[in-house]
C-alpha cells in the first residue's frame, strides 16, 4: 500500500517529480565487480508489516550475499496520517524516496 501511495504522489509531481529523472547507471553500479564507496547505491526501504519485515530482511541478505554495494534507508509507514503530507508517509520518508529515486 505504501508503495502505491508513493508512486501516485511521484507521478502527480506533487513532490517535485520523484521519479522524473531515472538513474540509468543503477544496473551498471549494482552488478559491477568492483564495489567501492563511489559505487554505493542508496535505496529507500519500507519493510511494511505482517511478513514484510521478514521479506525485507531476506532482500537485504540477498543483496549482501551478491555483494551489491547498497545502503538501505529504512522508513516506516505510520498508523496515523501525517498532516504535512496528508498520508501515512512522513515527509522524511518522501524526501528519502525523492533523493534515492529507488524504493
TrEMBL record:
Gene3D superfamilies: Isopropylmalate Dehydrogenase
One GO MF term attached to the UniProt entry: isocitrate dehydrogenase (NAD+) activity
Keywords: Oxidoreductase
SUPFAM superfamilies from the UniProt entry: Isocitrate/Isopropylmalate dehydrogenase-like
GO biological process: isocitrate metabolic process; tricarboxylic acid cycle
Keyword Oxidoreductase carried by entry: yes
Pfam families for this protein: Iso_dh
Family of this protein: Belongs to the isocitrate and isopropylmalate dehydrogenases family.
Source species, domain of life: Eukaryota
The organism of origin for this protein: Sesamum angustifolium
Residue ranges constituting the Isopropylmalate dehydrogenase-like domain according to the UniProt record: 44-102
UniProt-listed InterPro entries: IsoPropMal-DH-like_dom
GO cellular component, one term: mitochondrion
Protein name: 3-isopropylmalate dehydrogenase, chloroplastic
Amino acid at each position: 500500500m505504501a508503495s502505491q501511495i508513493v508512486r501516485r504522489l511521484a507521478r502527480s509531481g506533487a513532490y517535485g517529480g520523484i521519479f522524473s529523472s531515472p538513474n540509468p547507471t543503477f544496473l551498471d553500479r549494482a552488478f559491477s565487480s568492483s564495489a567501492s564507496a563511489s559505487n554505493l547505491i542508496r535505496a529507500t526501504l519500507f519493510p511494511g508489516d505482517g511478513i514484510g519485515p521478514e521479506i525485507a530482511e531476506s532482500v537485504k541478505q540477498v543483496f549482501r550475499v551478491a555483494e551489491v554495494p547498497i545502503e538501505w534507508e529504512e522508513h516506516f509507514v505510520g498508523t496515523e496520517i501525517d498532516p504535512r503530507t496528508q498520508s501515512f508517509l512522513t515527509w522524511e520518508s518522501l524526501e528519502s524516496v525523492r533523493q534515492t529515486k529507488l524504493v
